[in-house]
Amino acid sequence: MIDFADWKTWLVILMSVVTIIGWQIYNQDKQSSEVLEQAFRDDYVVFTVFTTDFEEAVQKIDKVVEYEFVIDDKILVGKYILDLKNKNIVELILGSAKRELVLTGMSLKEIEEQLEKSVFLKDYDIVDSQFYWIIRIKKVNTGSEE
Amino acid sequence: MRMEELKAGDVLLLPKEHVEGVYRFIEDNFGNRVADILTRIENHDYIHAELYIGNGYAIGAWFNGVHIYKIPVQHLALFHVYRPVRDIKMEDLKKSVVKHFNLPYAFDQLLLTGVIKAISLGTEALYNTFTSYFDLPSTDRVICSELVAQILRDCGVYISTLEPEFVTPDNIAQSKEFVRII
């Protein structure tokens, strides 16, 4: 137990606080303005769908807004077959209560490769209802805004 | 919680019970007495505030500065969401976010607010009286709830009669300018 009657205890506490604050002030990070542009760009829409089924996710998204969403190929991930050949997907996040796998700035082929070699789905319990997709899609038909 | 349910201008508040590990740590290492005193002084439901700015991004003042980040859904599940009752213009929000982006964290402000809280012993009237004595200039450094209060004020939402420097996450939750949606 810490002895609060001892002045040395308070000295250590004081020094620790000063050190932590000093270190934090020294470590003030500056972010690139790129993140600002990303946050405010208006040609993307984000959807979160809690399902293990990518096709179901796509259907739900289609119900929300009418954007073009083309599927033409298949990807095998473990025991699960994914259709995600939408040319307009600019970011795909597979998430669970424990972690997220973010696939962004990749070609569809690279996304395929990442999904295939990823341990994310292989050791993941697909039945877990916490599983979700976040899909960032480039707007194509802007006639029907949300 | 779905990302698309959020609206730019929504305030994300982190409830105290979601970080109760901190209190247990204090209790284990510093004893019941210190933990009890801290709990009494820190008579708050929320300990942190951030602002949703759209596209899955939030802005928050952390110890290493004001940052914009993409919110993981796991992270989102920890927060309560309060929505301003007034409409927020995206133009105003963007202008204010750009103004506050990358500001350093105001440690002195945090300490000052903490000291005033401590000597007010949790009394709101006393706290308001003390804060009225401090005419702090608009600083170039912010703490978490101050950042949210300043940005929302730029968008025409006034959280309370307190200056943004003294607005706490609880003030946001108690304000009539917001409704809790999640």
- The overall pLDDT of chain A, averaged over residues, is 59
Q: Give the overall pLDDT of chain B as a whole number.
A: 81
Biggest interface, which chains?
A: A-B, 35 and 31 residues
Q: Name the poorly predicted regions of chain A.
A: 62-87, 119-129, 140-146
What is the H/E order of chain B? EHEEEHEHHHHHE
Strand residue percentage of chain B: 15-25%
Structure description:
Chain A has helices spanning 7-26, 34-40, 54-64, 108-117, 119-122, and strands spanning 44-49, 75-77, 80-82, 89-95, 100-104, 132-138. Chain A is an alpha+beta fold and 146 residues long. In chain A, the strands form 2 sheets. Chain A has a 4-stranded antiparallel β-sheet, covered by helices on one side. The relative contact order of chain A is 0.18. The model of chain A is unreliable at 62-87, 119-129 and 140-146 (pLDDT under 50). Chain B is of the alpha+beta class. A 6-stranded antiparallel β-sheet of chain B has the order 4-3-2-1-5-6. In chain B, helix 3 packs across helix 6 and helix 4 (107-120) packs across helix 5. The A-B interface holds A 1-2, 4, 21, 24-25, 27-31, 33, 35-36, 38-41, 44-50, 64, 95, 97-100, 132, 134, 136, 146 and B 1-4, 29-31, 34, 53-57, 63-65, 67-69, 72-74, 77, 94, 97-98, 101-102, 104-105, 107.
Describe this structure in a few short sentences.
The complex is a heterodimer of chains A (146) and B (182). Chain A has 5 helices and 6 strands, in the order H-H-E-H-E-E-E-E-H-H-E.
Q: Which key terms come to mind for this protein?
A:
heterodimer; A: 146 residues; alpha+beta; 4-stranded antiparallel sheet; two-stranded antiparallel sheet; 5 helices; disordered C terminus; B: 182 residues; 6-stranded antiparallel sheet; 7 helices; 42% helix
Q: How do the strands and helices of this protein lay out in sequence?
A:
The complex is a heterodimer of chains A (146) and B (182).
Chain A: H1 7-26, H2 34-40, E1 44-49, H3 54-64, E2 75-77, E3 80-82, E4 89-95, E5 100-104, H4 108-117, H5 119-122, E6 132-138
Chain B: E1 11-15, H1 20-41, E2 46-54, E3 57-62, E4 65-70, H2 73-76, E5 80-84, H3 90-100, H4 107-120, H5 124-132, H6 144-154, H7 169-174, E6 178-180
Antiparallel strand pairs in B: 1-2, 1-5, 2-3, 3-4, 5-6
Helix pairs in contact in B: 3-6, 4-5
